[in-house]
Every structure is written in structure tokens, then in C-alpha cells.
Amino acid sequence: MYDGTIVKNLPQNAEIAARKVKRQARYWCFRFKSEAEGGLPAKGRPPLFKEYVEGLEGFGGWRNFAVTWDIEGSNPFKIFARDFSVWEEWSAVMRRVAKPLPGTEEEKIGGQGDIRPN
Fold it and tell me: What is the mean pLDDT of the chain?
């Protein structure tokens, strides 16, 4: 049901369609992560999508999504191991491209410091 053929058989604007597929897949993965961490249930999910992802090689539990594993950009139906969490990656990007606001410490870009949620 969920495999690379969905991405390969996309219409003319395949790149845009593939981004939509990846965005939806990541949305549901974050919903499952939130549910695993005590958040609201992920109602309305695509049938069997959660079970499919849980069966993929490299799945490390929903609490570890975007921390130790993530879905591939070119094929959202495959998993890859992350070297850095999405929050660590975002903080590194912000340190590299953002300029500190006047009156703040350099390591606290925009007064936020590490933006990783608790």
C-alpha cells in the first residue's frame, strides 16, 4: 500500500506532489509522536500508515521520531537515521544565519536559546 511506486507514479508536477506526500507523512509522524508523549490521539490518520511505519527497518519508537530517525526526503516511505535531532539542526542553522538581537547574548538568538521543546 505505501511504497515507492506512489512517489514514482506522480503526475506532471511530481516534485510538488512529492513534497505534499512528504509533508503529510511527516505531519502524521509528528502526530503519532505527540500521541506517544501523552498528547491527543491522532484521529483521522491514513489507514495502516502508523503500522506501516512501525514495520520499517530503522523505526526507533514514536518518541524518537525527528530525534534519532526520520523519513527520507526523496521517498517518505523509507526511514533514515539522524545524526542530529531536528531541533539541534534548526539551532545550528539559526546560529549560522541569524544575527543576535541588540542587547542579547550571542548564543541566545532572538532570546530563545535552544529552541528544543521540553
Answer: 81
